[in-house]
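Severity: low
Component: inverse-folding endpoint
Summary: output formatting inconsistent between runs
Steps to reproduce: submit the following C-alpha cells with default settings.
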C-alpha cells in the first residue's frame, strides 16, 4: 500500500514520533492583540501547558524511555524558561514553531523571514543550538517557506501532509526533508471547545480520541509508515488524556516493531539513507504555485 517505505532502524515496522506543539498562550495574543490581556480564563487554559502539562509529559516520557519533540514558538521559549529546562533536561528536541505563532502565509516574505530568524535565535539562546526542525504555526506554510528553511540550514519540516512516509521538498535554495502528518493526528478536533480560539468542537472522551490515533498507528505499522502526532500540552496533557497517552505507549511497546524517535532523529535517518543510496524519496518541487492559477486570471 505504501510504494516506497523507508527501512527503519533495526527492522522496525513503523517510526513513531510523539510531537507536541507547546504554544502556551502565544496564539491568544496574536489572535486578540488589543485585548488578550482581558481573556484570563483562556490564558489559564493555555498556561496549563508549560506550567503543569510539560513536567507531567516529560516525567511520563522518562518512565517509558521515549524521546519526544516540542515545537515551541520563540516567545513561549522566552516566557516559560522552566518548561524549556524540563524539556532539555529530559533530552527531548526543541524545534521551531514561529515566534508568536504568527501566520507566515499572511505576511510579506521579509516579515516571515524576520520572525523565523528571531525564533531560531530564541531557541539557540535557550538550548545552545539552533533548531533544525520546523512546523509552521497553524500549518500556514507559505510559498516562500521552503526557500527560507533551506537557506537557514534547517534539516526538516513537519507541517505538510503530502505522503505517508518522509519525502523531500526541493526549492531554488536547497532541499529539506518533510515529515508528514495529517489532520487526524491533531488533538484540536478531538478536545478543543473555546470561543477565544475560535474553535468549537464536541469534546470527545479520551478513548474515542485514541481510536483515531490507534487506527492510524495500526495502518502505519502494517505498511511501514510514519506516525507523527500534533498534540498540545495544554490539551492532551490534561490528566485523563495524558493517562491514555501513557496506555498508548505501553501498547506500542508491547506490540513491538516500533522505532520511537524525535523528529530530528527520523529526519537524520532519512537523510543518511538517501546519502547512502538505500532510499530514493519522492521529491516535491516547491512551491507548487507562485501566483493564482491562470484559469482564474482576468483577461
Ligand atoms: Zn501551534
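Observed output (run 2 of 3):
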Amino acid at each position: 500500500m505504501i510504494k516506497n517505505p523507508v527501512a527503519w532502524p533495526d527492522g522496525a515496522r513503523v517510526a513513531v514520533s510523539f510531537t507536541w506543539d507547546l504554544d502556551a498562550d502565544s496564539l491568544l495574543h496574536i489572535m486578540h492583540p488589543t485585548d488578550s490581556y482581558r481573556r484570563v480564563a483562556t490564558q489559564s487554559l493555555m498556561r496549563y501547558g508549560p506550567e503543569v502539562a510539560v513536567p507531567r509529559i516529560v516525567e511520563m516520557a522518562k518512565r517509558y524511555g521515549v524521546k519526544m519533540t516540542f515545537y515551541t514558538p520563540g516567545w513561549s521559549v522566552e516566557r516559560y524558561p522552566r518548561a524549556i529546562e524540563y524539556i532539555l533536561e529530559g533530552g527531548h528536541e526543541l524545534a521551531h514553531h514561529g515566534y508568536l505563532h504568527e501566520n507566515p502565509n499572511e505576511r510579506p516574505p521579509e516579515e516571515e523571514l524576520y520572525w523565523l530568524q528571531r525564533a531560531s535565535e530564541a531557541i539557540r539562546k535557550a538550548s545552545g543550538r539552533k533548531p533544525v526542525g520546523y512546523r509552521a504555526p497553524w500549518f500556514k506554510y507559505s510559498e516562500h517557506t521552503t526557500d527560507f528553511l533551506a537557506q537557514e540550514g534547517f534539516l526538516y519540516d513537519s507541517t505538510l501532509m503530502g505522503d505517508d512516509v518522509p519525502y523531500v521538498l526541493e526549492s531554488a535554495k536547497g532541499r529539506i526533508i518533510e515529515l508528514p502528518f495529517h489532520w487526524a493526528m491533531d488533538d484540536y478536533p478531538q478536545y478543543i471547545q473555546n470561543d477565544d480560539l475560535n474553535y468549537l468542537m464536541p469534546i470527545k472522551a479520551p478513548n474515542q480520541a485514541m481510536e483515531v490515533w490507534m487506527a492510524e498507528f495500526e495502518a502505519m505499522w502494517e505498511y511501514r509508515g510514519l506516525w507523527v502526532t500534533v498534540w498540545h500540552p495544554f490539551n492532551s496533557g490534561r490528566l485523563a488524556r495524558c493517562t491514555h497517552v501513557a496506555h498508548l505507549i505501553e501498547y506500542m511497546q508491547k506490540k513491538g516493531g516500533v522505532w520511537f524517535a524525535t523528529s530530528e532523529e527520523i529526519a537524520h535517518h532519512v537523510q543518511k539513507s538517501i546519502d547512502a543510496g538505500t532510499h530514493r524519496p519522492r521529491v516535491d518541487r516547491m512551491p507548487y504555485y507562485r501566483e493564482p492559477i491562470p484559469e482564474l486570471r482576468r483577461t
